[in-house]
């Protein structure tokens, strides 16, 4: 049985690592090592849950639930997933990564149970979801962007806002500060916008280049 157990954790590690490589390629916080270890640990927990208490099975008055250890993996993986979710500048980030870790744990449990075909199919579906969805988002989706720029006057600021709105850019919120440090006053504007993902930085530069004196300081 030991050889079978080793095969189960190796397959789980490989499948988890494949998903992790995709996340690593996308420069996510939870990458190869995280997914590799989550799948490996989940598979081992499943094996222990099923076979780790064989020496006490049948003891008088002792009741065992072989699914209890595996069930704790499902709830416990939430702590790792929660660590990848952040709320930054009115935008929630990391949900997809957290869901990927949760799915990787399920793949590990399946491998630990010896359900290799189901685990492999789930891995393929996970990769298709991550990559195909990412492709469509880049082509047709929108993203939230924080922009900070300076302008020589309020009229320039108003012109920039009008140009963005006419171009289909949705402005969520913005703030404006007057700067009196130079020879002439200027204005610094920080705003959160929603813009199409395809080459959004280039599009922002093109849109704001129509206004003389407007300088983009930061885009994130």
Structure write-up:
- This protein is an alpha+beta fold.
- The chain has 7 helices and 6 strands, in the order αααββααβαββαβ.
- It has a 4-stranded antiparallel β-sheet with strand order 4-5-3-6.
- The protein starts with a helix and ends with a strand.
- The mean pLDDT is 80.
Labels describing this entry:
single chain, 220 residues, alpha+beta, four-stranded antiparallel beta sheet, two-stranded antiparallel ribbon, 7 helices, 57% helix, elongated
Question: Helix count, per DSSP?
Answer: 7
Strand content: 15-25%
Question: What level of helicity do the residues show?
Answer: 55-70%
Secondary-structure element order, as H and E?
Answer: HHHEEHHEHEEHE
Give the low-pLDDT segments: none
Strand segment tally: 6
Spatial gap, N to C terminus: 52 Å
Mean pLDDT: 80
Briefly note the structural class of the backbone.
Answer: alpha+beta
Quick one: biggest sheet? Answer: 4 strands, antiparallel
3D shape: elongated
Q: In which order are the strands of the major sheet placed?
A: 4-5-3-6
Rg computed from alpha carbons, rounded to a whole number of angstroms: 25 Å
